[in-house]
Design goal:
two-stranded antiparallel sheet, five-stranded mixed beta sheet, globular, Udp-n-acetylmuramoylalanyl-d-glutamate--2,6- Diaminopimelate Ligase, Chain: A, domain 1, alpha/beta
């Protein structure tokens, strides 16, 4: 049995979350197939892949290094907390869209889950 593959435009997720965009490089072209939510660096490193949105509270030096190493499509920080200047710079340098959800982890993931379940993305 084949599984339905959804490509959700990052702009759709930004709109649904009411997220603030801090780095909009490649935002219009960015498609999301998977979402990973977590705060442990080892889990993030092991899970990251292309067309993945990383949802995390981490906005520290460790996250800066992770952005430099990974191939994720975009990063979403939580609770309306703006990213530090260093994270903004590395996101710009690596062309990684960086958004901030006004919600916590649970609410942000719930909204995104509902979007994916509703088939709000395009099917290739």
């Amino acid at each position: 049995m084949s599984q339905k593959k959804i490509n959700m435009a990052l702009t759709t997720l930004v709109e649904a979350l009411g997220a603030r965009v801090f780095v909009d490089t490649n935002l219009e072209e960015c498609l999301i197939e998977q979402v990973f939510a977590g705060d442990r660096m080892s889990d993030l490193l092991g899970a990251v892949s292309e067309r993945m949105l990383i949802i995390t509270h981490l906005a520290n030096q460790g996250m800066i290094r992770l952005v430099e190493l990974m191939d994720a499509s975009a990063i979403c920080l939580l609770n309306g907390a703006p990213p530090c200047e260093a994270l903004l710079e590395v996101a710009k340098e690596t062309n990684t869209p960086l958004i901030v959800s006004p919600f916590g982890m649970y609410e942000t993931c719930g909204i995104i889950y509902e979007l994916f379940q509703g088939g709000g993305g395009s099917v290739p």
